[in-house]
Design brief:
Helices cover 19% and strands 39% of the residues. With 444 residues, it is α+β, with helices and mostly antiparallel strands. The protein has four domains: 80 residues, Sandwich (Immunoglobulin-like), CATH 2.60.40; 67 residues, SH3 Domains (SH3 type barrels), CATH 2.30.30; 75 residues, Sandwich (Immunoglobulin-like), CATH 2.60.40; 179 residues, Aminopeptidase, CATH 3.40.630. The strands form seven sheets. The chain has a six-stranded mixed beta sheet with strand order 24-23-25-28-26-27. Strand 19 and strand 20 form a beta hairpin. The protein binds zinc ion.
Length: 444
């Protein structure tokens, strides 16, 4: 009996219990549209790990990232502790090319249509991404459609200008109608909270609102008896240049809030949460947990600097992007900072992606993005990847100054060492807070 137990203990010791951990891929079977994949995870000290015939090279803290080419079809990856060793685990990764068929523009003579839902996005280009939004049209806005490309319909604005809406958001008009409307005057209403400019039209019409050099350029199309059938107005905005626009029952309302820049309300947004883990790090940390810890540290730091701070979540719960935006609007947040950690697509090499980047969408948020980016990279000692413009839902609204921070890459072994250091959260909180301080100094 003793012998058997001894033997059992010996066998158990030989088993690779916790010798390594693979954080990604999380599934043993996967189909990808790219011709590459990475494995990230950790290896315990003194242990060896092989993936097929490649020996894993962990960094000092044990984290690693290895990349592999994929052949079309099935690719098998066997994880072992020595070359040609016994299989610990097996991954089957299928690479299947997707055919990107770019369909041509189908042009036709004008077809009268109307929107069937609210908030139909009018876009500069027929793409469901990028910086191409011109305005948001309410239900029952009359439009003239002159072509179709992929899932988009082309909207006639004037002889020199077209825009695009999703075809599923419109239906053809059943009767012969005039798509043009008339301008019926404008007014201004002011109170303690906002100046509201109202432009009256006989019905809902397509419009665009563009912020450029502290000015708001408002254009309404298909307006009768106007040059090029368009109505135009320009408003000069004051810092921090926030505004909101709504077309309803033929009224285009542009509200310019009066914001308190001496004690602005700051909303901290810990990315992901609950059922949505976000990225996974080499050491199997979940982005949602890291973001929440960073957010709490940032709240502490900002409060110590006497700021008025709120959080979109302060526990591990799921909050939709829409709810994060609505919360910030309802609470009249002036500054919105979303905290995230970065990852890379499965086909990229995690070893070459490291550092900090800060995103903005509206041009007036760029100053805050630059200020946070500069101070955060200084505080963390990370590579400065610069500020970038991107269409993320939480930073798109124009009612507040919004940025999204990607502090470090969770799958880059060098960045892992940074986020695993014990003062990481403190450094994030100081970097972002210094950025907010500097932004407000420059604005005032
Ligand atoms: Zn994220």
């Amino acid at each position: 009996m003793k012998k058997i137990i001894l033997l059992l203990i010996t066998v158990l010791n030989l088993l690779p219990v916790n010798a390594y951990e693979i954080a990604f891929p999380q599934e043993k079977e996967l189909t990808l549209p790219y011709n590459g994949i990475f494995f990230v995870g950790k290896v315990n000290k003194k242990e060896n790990l092989w993936i097929n015939d490649v020996k894993v090279q962990p960094t000092k803290n044990g984290s690693f990232a290895s990349t592999f080419q994929l052949n079309p079809g099935e690719n098998i990856f066997v994880v072992t502790n020595r070359k040609n060793g016994d299989e610990f685990s097996k991954y089957t990764i299928n690479y299947s090319k997707t055919n990107n068929v770019d369909s041509k523009l189908l042009e036709f003579s004008t077809q009268d249509c109307k929107t069937v839902v609210d908030n139909v996005i009018l876009r500069k280009t027929p793409e469901d991404f990028g910086i191409n939004r011109l305005g948001y049209l309410p239900k029952n806005t009359d439009l003239q459609i002159t072509g179709i490309q992929n899932e988009f319909s082309r909207v006639y604005l004037n002889p020199n200008l077209s825009a695009w809406v999703l075809s599923k958001d419109i239906i053809p008009e059943q009767r012969e109608i005039a798509t043009v409307g008339e301008f019926r005057g404008e007014s201004i209403n002011s109170d303690n909270f906002a100046d509201v400019y109202t432009y009256k039209f006989s019905k809902n019409l397509p419009y665009s609102v563009i912020f450029d050099k502290n000015m708001l350029d408002i254009t309404v199309y298909n307006v009768e008896n106007r040059t090029d059938e368009k109505f135009n107005s320009k408003l000069s905005l004051k810092p921090p240049y926030c505004y909101s626009v709504k077309m309803k029952d033929g009224d285009l309302n542009v509200s310019v809030p009066k914001m308190n820049l001496n004690n602005p309300k700051i909303i901290i947004d810990a990315g992901h949460g609950g059922k949505e883990p976000g990225a996974v790090g080499c050491m199997s940390d979940l982005e949602k947990d890291m973001n929440l810890k960073a957010a709490k540290a940032l709240r502490r730091e900002l409060k110590s600097r006497n700021y008025n701070v709120l959080m979109t979540r302060n526990s591990d719960k799921y909050v939709s992007l829409k709810d994060r935006v609505n919360y910030t609007r309802d609470k009249k947040g002036v500054i919105f900072v979303s905290l995230h950690m970065n990852s890379v697509p499965e086909s990229a090499d995690p070893n070459t992606h490291k550092g900090t980047e800060t995103y903005y969408y509206n041009d007036f948020s760029k100053l805050l993005a630059s200020s946070i980016q500069g101070n955060l990279t200084k505080s963390l000692g990370t590579r400065d990847n610069g500020v970038k413009q991107a269409s993320f839902a939480v930073i798109r609204p124009t009612e507040y100054v919004g940025v999204l921070v990607e502090t470090v890459f969770m799958v880059n072994p060098e960045d892992v060492a940074i986020y695993k250091s014990k003062d990481y959260f403190k450094k994030v909180s100081i970097g972002v807070s210094d950025g907010v301080d500097k932004y407000l100094q420059e604005l005032n």
